[in-house]
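Continuing the batch. This is chain 6 of the set; chains 1 through 5 are on the previous pages. Same settings as before, nothing changed between runs. Recording input and output for traceability.
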Amino acid sequence: MKLLLIDPPFKSFAGIFSLYFPLGLAYLAGAAKKAGYECSILDMDAAEPKEGSMNFLREYESYNSYITALNDPQHPTWKLMRELVVKQKPDFIGISALTTKFGSVIQTARFCREVLPGVPIIVGGAHASTMPALTAAIPEVDYVLRGESDEALPELLNAIQNRLDLSKIGSLTWKKNGQIVHNPDRPFTQDLDSLALPDRGSLLNPEHYSSEDMGVILTSRGCPFRCSYCFHMWERRVRFRSVESVISEIMEVHKTYGTTQFSLKDDSFTVRRKHVLELCEAFKQLPFKITFNCTTRVDILDDELVAAMKAAGLAQVSVGIESGSAAILKETDKDITHAQILKAAEILNHHGVFWTGYFMIGLPTETEEDILKTVKFLRRARPYYGGLGVYSPFPKTKLFDQGVEMGLLDPNPRLEHFLKTNPKDLFFRDPARRVLHIEHRRFQELSELASKEFHKHNSNLFNLARRGFARRKAYMYDPSLLSRDLGRAIDFLGIKRFFGGER
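Output for chain 6:
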């Protein structure tokens, strides 16, 4: 029996370059194969050669093309998807659902049912976990898996295949006599080493991924912190893989794909200091050199830890700064201070580690003064790269509930809403009213101002040179990454036309 897992098209529709591969689906492919099922992964953003911009200055406007493509059944990408789905001849179809691209999930289910009417369709992922009833309301969707599905998916496939009792499958949402039924949640797997490793070999079109794309790894699952904009699916608990398990995966990926640049996608990589130091020692003992990047927090970094990570191959760190306003920073429940941010910046800069600071504007109670403080704080913190996003509310978060209470957000949008609404506006009752204290036109002006300031900072030749220098080892180990990064830098600087990219 064959399972086809699909990551719906999204970034390719919006003209945004897609990095990496769908790690969650690769974990599920590994679990399905371990249970005896044949499995393939169709990542639609990599079904054709990867193209797109890394310049996010006009990200909001770029989603207009996403909405257009979403509603065009004859779009070449949808035609290609239908052809590839039929070609795979699956007995089951699984679709990954994220909130931002839920419209694409709806259409993917519709087109799959259109070409393979008798094949059961299963949906999982973050959006399926936060809004399972809405997900199950898609007429073509038969089953919804909530939360972690490494063990639930093979159990569900077996139950469908052998007509077993579906009520016994934990974390399953399904339809019985026309009614949506939510089975009780199943406990998380405590021993992560017992789970199958991600099966990258299940990916279709492997030639469209770079060696770096294949280097996405988790060394833990979960996050203990309480940020108000996050959905705490893991119940603020963290489970860790053994060092031996992580090293085994790195060895396998390097052997198969030649990967030397790894991206550790733990929610907060340095949350357990001992775990990080043990991994760093193991990295140094590998029979080949690697570099890696990670995401963490400014309050769980220190000089000794950064030194150990750099000695083990650390190339880049991402941290959340969020806001230059102390009042707004407090509303994020991140439990950090600007003093801690500046201290972490000092440590990272001292060690010459390329680091990214992520900021956001547009929280419900933000004022014009708050936004201007965020722009000013970018100049104080001086990250190698500053990422700026306009706040997007997600269900089952503290800020989302507050937005509903304030009358800004609609917690119950209809399915068709996701097919015609910009992904940045999905839950707003009125996209022209995102914040309480700033008139919409002025908010747009401030967003434009902030975006330009961040772009000017990021496209500064000194910062671009710092980034290139920080990745020098990755280029040494895999020269193809240098040409890809140079192309992205040319696009980012907006000088592509001088190199024949625009006519």
